[in-house]
């Protein structure tokens, strides 16, 4: 559950930069959004792996 909380925090932080990029045209914010999305992707994969392991050991 700790990783899921971290995922939500990353998404919330990225939302601020996404607003700056799309509304104000701030390209540096766009770079931060891209980095955040890559971090989210990796964390989501870690969560998927963890869930699969837990599911398979419960059988």
TrEMBL record:
Signal peptide: none annotated. It holds the Pfam family Hc1. InterPro entries: Hc1. GO terms for molecular function: DNA binding; structural constituent of chromatin. Might have a role analogous to that of eukaryotic histone proteins. Belongs to the histone H1/H5 family. HCT subfamily. This is Histone H1. It comes from Pedobacter cryoconitis.
